[in-house]
Amino acid sequence: MSKHVLSVLGAATLTLAIAAVALAQTTTTTTVTQTVQNPDGTYTIIEYPAKKEVTLTLNPVNIQGAKGVATILRDDDGTRIKLNLTDVPADLTALTLYAVDDKGVVTALGPVAISNGAGTLAATTPLSRFMLIASPEPALTTYDPNTKIVFRSAVPEGFAVIPLTSASGERVSATTTPGTTTAPSTTTTAPSTTTTPSTTVTVPTTTVATTYTAPMLNIPAYEKGDDTKIKVDFTGALTGARANVFITPRKDGPTEVKMRFHELKDAPAGQKFILWAVSPDNQFVKLGQIVNVAGRNEAEIKSETTLQDFGLVVTMEGADADMPKGPSVAHIHIVP
Fold this sequence. Notes:
Elements: E1 4-6, E2 21-24, E3 29-32, E4 46-47, E5 54-60, E6 67-75, E7 78-86, E8 94-100, E9 106-115, E10 118-125, E11 129-135, E12 151-153, E13 170-171, E14 186-187, E15 200-204, E16 211-215, E17 230-234, E18 242-248, E19 255-262, E20 272-278, E21 284-291, E22 299-305, E23 311-317, E24 328-334
Parallel strand pairs: 13-15
Antiparallel strand pairs: 1-18, 2-3, 4-11, 5-6, 5-12, 6-7, 7-10, 8-9, 8-11, 9-10, 11-12, 14-22, 15-16, 17-24, 18-19, 19-22, 20-21, 20-23, 23-24
């Protein structure tokens, strides 16, 4: 059977325009910016303009005197976030910054180490619509008004809150069945490139209240000589990393999947990054895992699955897992 190589591309960009309200007066014209926000301030999702830096205030929640500011800049390489926290209470020594998008999906952007009441973080995400929250919880998978957070982004002047919407794509039934699988393995190694098309499936699990969005790779449609490109957009703890995926379907046999990771130097040590295949009927198959160790910037997962068609998800887990529980750190989708 043919081998299909998946190439890693940069994050896609979106465009938007921001409307201002102009009030005409007798002798002059004044531009008035308006801020529209949920009455209780629990959701402050906005869409960030391309090539224009936006400054966000992060309001403290249930703590006194702390201050937070983030600058957001969306460009061709993704949305860059720079966070600065000051006057953080002494009992808070570590926080994790998360993005919450307009579908309610929570994405970990990275840990914020607090020293002498101050903390900083630089991160990149492919998202263009989101709010920021900071929490002492290292692996949030959902956000609601009762989630334990200590900072939440406010709505800057001139922006309107984007309401929450249901996740796009077909929603499938929840299951905890791992499904049919074959041996996972881990090693270390190097780069490569491309493969695949089909429909997006948003997959809810019952083990934790979260969703993972995985475009199906349309494995049955692969033919010899095909070269279908997809994007691998890393976020959170794997921001800045790269990966290449090789898929080899076999006639009347399992499909081989290899994923090679590069530039792992900034990934947190000790965390497990697990690659999952997920079928259209919501079966998760653990393909393998890597753990970042000092001095090793590359790693490889090589495995097989008997699923006829599947999407791929990478999650960050604090321990071995038979089903995904932690935040997704890669969005793997097809380039149209």
